[in-house]
Amino acid sequence: MSEYLLLLLGTALVNNVVLVKFLGLCPFMGVSKKMDGALGMGMATTFVLTLATAATWMLEHWLLLPLGIQYLRILAFILVIAATVQFTEMVIRKTSPGLYQVLGIYLPLITTNCAVLGIALLNVQEKNGFMHSLMYGFGSALGFTLVMLLFTGLRVRLALAQVPSAFSGAPIGFVVAGLLSLAFMGFAGLAGH
Amino acid sequence: MLFSAIVSLTMLGAILGLLLGVAARYLKVEGNPLVAEIEQLLPGSQCGQCGFAGCTGAAQALADGTAPAGLCPPGGRAVMQALAAKLGIEADLSGVEDNVPMMAEIKEEICIGCTRCFKVCPTDAIMGAAQQIHVVFREACTACGKCEEVCPTESVKLQPIPATLQSWHWPKPQQVAEGAAA
Amino acid sequence: MKLFELRGGVHPEGRKDLSAGRHIRVLPLPKKLFVPLQQHIGAPATPLVNVGDKVLKGQLIALAQGAVSSSIHAPTSGVIAALGDFPAPHPSGLPVPTITIESDGEDKWIARDEAYDPFALTPEDIAARVGAAGIVGLGGATFPAALKLNLSRNSGVHTLIMNGGECEPYLTCDDRIMRERAGQIVEGIRLIAHAVAAKEILVGIEDNKPDAIAAMQAAAEGTPVKVVVMPSMYPMGSEKQIIQVLTGKEIPAGGRPADIGVLVHNVATAYAVQQAVCYGKPLISRIVTVSGGAIMTPCNVEALIGTPVQELIDFADGYEQPAARLVLGGPMMGQQFTHTGVPVVKGTSGVLALMQDEIGQAEPSPCIRCSTCVRACPIGLVPLEMAAHIRVSDLSGAVDLGLKDCIACGSCSYVCPAHIPLVHYFNYAKGDLAAQERTKLKQEATRKLAEARNERLARIERERAEAAARRKAAREAKERAKQEAAAKAAEEAA
């Protein structure tokens, strides 16, 4: 049990997918203007990421490895991820048209969110077991959601600030993201070596 | 070896496609519920100033994301902000800010009482009868400009509504100088 | 009496000694009076007179319209010279519908309905008389007084608070009226208390007016009216603040004093109520402070409603130095104006001609979030955050932070070391929100009109179709009858 907790903590904070591994920066900058959107994006990504890690693990171990066609891994993974995203999109469209509108193009773009493919590939690389992979995916997604919310909070405050015109908009956003990333580097010793 | 790769990926694609197809059946959304919600926010006078056929068309375009939130001139900033909030998009208020409230006014000297204007008025804001001078009700006029288009003598013109003590309010304070902020 | 703690507030330099030492003098009768139809919160009154009509002093010349409104009376006898637009005593300087009266110099009163025993009147009668006299709150809010009495009576008020705070710098009109007419004020207070059946009557006066306190205490001797000395602080004279300091209760956000069983009136309003109920005199004059560094002889004058402000300035011996800014009301919440021809209205408590060093205006610099404004805000809002939201046009964000509870007292702007016009932002935002609200109402009306029109068009279409069908049926029936008749005739012939 403590192993999984440690794994969650490690993936969410120490090896944060956005701020430490720099994966999934597209929605990180794109959907961080409003809290609702950020929360929706975080939840959608959590859903997709957890589902996709499970599906890709099964794919890798039950299809690709037995048949010896690991060279098709990226192609096959993208196929599964795309299907999962499509399914998520349908669910969101059905349950919350408003959120569907808010997420807009960023919802189908979860397909190309490198965090999703990246975590799946990392799982293969590190030869993780099924539960381990699932926790790895879920923890990373939690980290993603956390960072989305933190960054959105900062950007909402930033919208009120009087920023010099050369920096206003995206530039100051990147500066803030950089500082936030530096802050997350501070978690490096958390697990206690 | 190559054969198994082709077959497995094809199978995978087919199965996933089938699953999605089934899911789409169960999660089908009839029309776009957003359109109805957006239409509720619009004035509903079907004036056509946005360039769409009535408010339903505009709502459809808004839901599809092909029209900006500021498309409704009679709605002004209030509607624009409501739409932007609904659609989760940024409202570009710069263009609307300058839009002074207008209303139609009839120059009585050249009105010939043709009744064309009051037939097209979407809100019944013009009263009149054949061979009688028509008048505009300030409260009901939305400044859609339809009457202006049909008037044969150009006696109907949109005029800015003069400010009154009830409508006047303080302007926005001047921003702090940019140089001082930097 | 134990006073309660108050948060926030500022202590601007009083400068009341400029005008506090002189007796109230009555302004000589002006030649022309400009009486705007809207001098109160609510709907403008409708004129009852025409150009050329002769009116007597105190005659009703414009009648209240709708639920929230107030009647207007002729301030003197004379002839109606014009009914039309005239610049308003308002920062916008926009023209407003105004009745212009040319005085005949006789100042002849209309027959008045005097009450010999005003306390024998029923509360309803008192409220009716107050309403008929066109009395509004003279503290500055100009809310119709009769309406406030009725609302308070219906909701059961236990405490009547009379506001003698006069916390605005320079203004001494309430101070002087309490010193000179304490007897009438106390009678007026008792009438108001009678009208709303209040059990507790408190008169709150700031401790910087010792003479007024002494005069009021002497007049209140042996009556249930209790004079309470309050510390001097701005905005002590605000309704919410005076209630909090005297009773310890806070008005809930968006609520009225009546919600917590309190009614607040200004002391000058009590004087007007006494005049109206006992002598049948409508509200046609008020005490106005003429002061400021640029005025030669600052003083208090009793001016008729409609007197051009220029005459008040002339009466105070004009300018000592050119004024940098003219203000109607107090320097904190008053309204800047430029045209001295504008008239004195019911809500005009002061005419100030200020010099450059009294304005203290400076170029604003960026907010460094020092939170001085947060400490100064008497309501407990966060002015710097609200202003930041308004600056980026996020008005709903400002409303979430409590913009609607802001009383626009200006304490935040006064203390801001960066000279940011905070209260100006709030005034702008409130005005803009009100405009949006109006647009929304219009939108709903438009929708209803459009639907009604569509329905009507559809009905006409339907009726036309039905009529056509009926005509067709009738025609067919006729033809059939004709054919039958022809057939019958042929049969008979055969």
Calculate Rg of chain C over CA atoms.
Answer: 30 Å
Major β-sheet of chain C, in short? Answer: 6 strands, mixed
Gyration radius of chain A (Cα, Å) is 17 Å
**What sort of overall outline of chain C do the alpha carbons produce when their principal axes are compared?**
globular
SSE class of chain C: alpha/beta
Overall average residue pLDDT of chain C: 91
- The tally of helices of chain A reads 8
The overall number of domains of chain A is: 1
Helical content of chain C (DSSP H or I, runs of 4+):
25-40%
Walk me through what this model shows.
The complex is a heterotrimer of chains A (about 190), B (about 180) and C (about 500). Chain A is an all-alpha fold and about 190 residues long. Chain A is about 70% helix and about 0% strand. The longest helix of chain A has about 35 residues, at about 35-65. Chain B has eight helices and four strands, in the order αααααβαββαβα. Mean pLDDT of chain B is about 80; it is low at about 175-180. Among the domains of chain B are: about 35-95, 3-methyladenine DNA Glycosylase II, Chain A, domain 3 (Orthogonal Bundle); about 100-160, Alpha-Beta Plaits, CATH 3.30.70. Helix content of chain B is about 40%, strand content about 10%. In chain B, strands 1-4 form a two-stranded antiparallel ribbon. Chain B has a two-stranded antiparallel ribbon with strand order 2-3. With about 180 residues, chain B is mainly α. In chain B, β2 (about 125) and β3 form a beta hairpin. With about 500 residues, chain C is of the alpha/beta class. Chain C has a domain at about 370-494. In chain C, about 40% of the residues lie in helices and about 15% in strands. Chain C has helices spanning about 15-20, 125-130, 145-155, 175-180, 180-195, 210-220, 240-245, 265-280, 310-315, 355-360, 370-375, 385-390, 395-400, 410-415, 420-494; strands at about 25, 30-35, 45, 55, 60-65, 70-75, 80-85, 95-105, 160-165, 200-205, 225-230, 260-265, 285-290, 300-305, 325-330, 335, 350-355. The chains are: A mainly alpha (about 190), B mainly alpha (about 180), C alpha/beta (about 500). Chains in contact: A-B, A-C, B-C.
